[in-house]
Every structure is written in C-alpha cells, then in structure tokens.
Amino acid sequence: MKEEKNSRRSFLTKTIAGISGSVIATGLPLSALASTQNIEVPDSKHDFLTKPYLQAPTNDGITIMWLTNQLCLNWIEYGETEKLGTKAEQCTHGMMNTNSRINTVTLTNLKPNTNYFYKVFSKQIVDFRPYKITFGDTISSETYPFKTLNPKEKEVSWLVLNDIHDRPESFKELIELNQNKPYDFVFLNGDMFDYQTDENQIINHLLNPCSLFSTEKPFMFVRGNHETRGKYSRNLLDYYYNYDKKEFYSFKMGPVFTIVLDTGEDKKDSHPVYGGTVNYDSYREEQAIWLEKQMKSKAFKNAPFRVVMMHIPHYHSDEEHGTTECRRLFGTLFEKYKIDLFIAGHTHEYGIFEPSKEHSYHFVIGGGPETGTRTLIRIDANPEVLNLQMLNDSGKEIGSITLNNKR
Prior knowledge:
Helix content is about 15%, strand content about 30%. It is built from 6 helices and 24 strands.
C-alpha cells in the first residue's frame, strides 16, 4: 500500500554532518538552530489529527479518544447540557498525559441512561523543562452528544463490518445502507487493513472514516489476522480502547450477552514469515480459559441471547492452523454452554448457515472486501426475539435470521 503524506504531521529536520553536541542559547530563531544539528521543529499549526471518537460504553461511563499533531495538555469538558461544566483529564500516577499525541480520557461516575454532551481540548506544549513548561495555543472540538447505557434496557441494535482491507470509502458506503435506522454501536470484526504500516494508515483508513458516526456512537474492534502483520502491528493497540483494555472481552447490552475473541493468525507460530516473533497458540489457550469462566457467569446464563463475534470462523472456512485451533479450543465450549449466534468474517465469502451436526447455533460470515461481495450485518434484539439481517453492498437483503428466546 502506498504510504500517504499527512502535512499536518510533517516535521522539518535539517542535518549538517560532523556537527554534534548540545546547542547553547544564542538568540537565534529555532529554525536557525535546527540547521546546525538534528532538531525536530514541529509545524507551527497546532491541530487535531482526528475528531474525538467514543469507545467502551458502560452504564456509568465512556472512554473518549482523539489524536493531535503535537504534544499537548489535554482534557474534556462535559455535562448534561451543552453548557458542559465538568472537566476530566487523562491522569496516571498523579501525572497528566503530556508525552503522547494519542489522548484517552475515561469518564466515570456518570448517571445511567442519561444524555451527555462533551468537547475535547488540547493545549500545545511549546517547551517542557523540569521547572518551567511553556504552553502555546489551545484548540477545541465541536460539542458532541453521547448517552450512557441503561442497565434495564430491553433492546439493543448494532451494525457489523468486516474485511475492509484498506478501502476507507467502504465505511461510508456500507453504513449508508442502514438508511439512518437507529443503532447503539458499530462492531469492526477484523481485517480493516491489509497489514499495519504507520499511524497515517490508521488515521486515514480507520479513525477518520469512522468519524461519520464515532463522535456520537462508539465503535468496538477486534483484530483480524491481517492486523497482526506489518511493522506497526504492535502499535495498533494504542489507537482504540476495549473493555478491560484487552483484545478479548465481553459485555451485556439489553438482552444480549456478547463475547469477543481475538483469533490471532491463521498460520502456525513457527511459520518463517513471523521469524519467531509470535505465540498465538498460547494466546488462544489463555482465551479458552477466560471464555469458559465467562460462560459460567450468571450474566451469560441468564441472558436471553448469547452471541460470539470473532474474525476467523472455525467452520465454513479452511483447515489452516488458526481455524482448527479455534475449533478445538472455542468451538467445543460454544457447544457445551449453548451459544445462540456466531458472527465472523475472514473468508471474503458471505454466508448464513443453519444449525447442523457441526454447530448447534446459527453461523454467520460477512463478506468483502471487493465491491459486489461486501456486506453490512444488522442485529436487533429484545427479550423475546433477535433478528439478524445481512445486506450486500447494493442494499439487497441476502440473508436473515430470526431467533426466539428459549430461556
């Protein structure tokens, strides 16, 4: 994939060979000092790289993230009206975040089932010395709304996208198929990218395309096998915030208990392309132990509907190592504890499969990434019925499921 230049993030570095050491204050402009040694001079324009985006909603909180092109002191102002009135900051061990352009603030102690408004602020840090910090301009976003979850909510709706593969236009084109019907969140079921290249790719091919909804509705994410590849794959995890800050997690909204699993790579850990740098076998084993604990919980047992979402499907796929390991570790537990619905991607061939000898639950695979094979999946559930609808990218319904509450 061709790397894209982001002028807002560009840095000027001028080097003259043979000159090293520290520079003593001379009264010269910073650009003149930069010409004498390796000094990075940021663009004069202090700006946001993304709009704020919502993550990990709960009954009494939510996480808000955004990126800036320079190091800043960052905060959020929020409240139940557009007057806002309350301030929150990212603070760890008594210190505000000033050393990362990726900003993450979690709002806590909010009222359940309540509408809030928020606005993010970033104050430029021009110079950071041990006993003196020099600040520059402060920039702020628009004011956006969000709503905390209702623990007594009877209904939930969400959309599922998968296998976008570095086609950012697909986000808008597929979300528009929903035709402005209400939903609670968007789930990204892996392979948003071909492989991880740099921050520009994450901004331009994920965060900015999702901004058509993510300032007001959260997205949730799980890696596909392609998100585990490339020189920036280990940095990707910094750009989103899952429940418990893990790549596998669970949550309950309305009548649905949802489990999300991170299937890792489809090849063996020993494959030469990884050069001995991965251990997905142990990682899946760890998830299987966690998975059974989730399925033994009261929340799972009492939920009217139990849904699992993960990228690699353990049936109706291939017999690669990752597929068969997911079948061995996860599939047996799905049967033992009786899930109702399974949703995956990966194969690039959409399909809806009825319960069979292989699996006792409905099995759904989203398509993609080429035009004509892409899909949008929508799920609506109340305590009595769960409905799933799959649309192709022309807007035609190509499959549906209706599940009745058996509990």
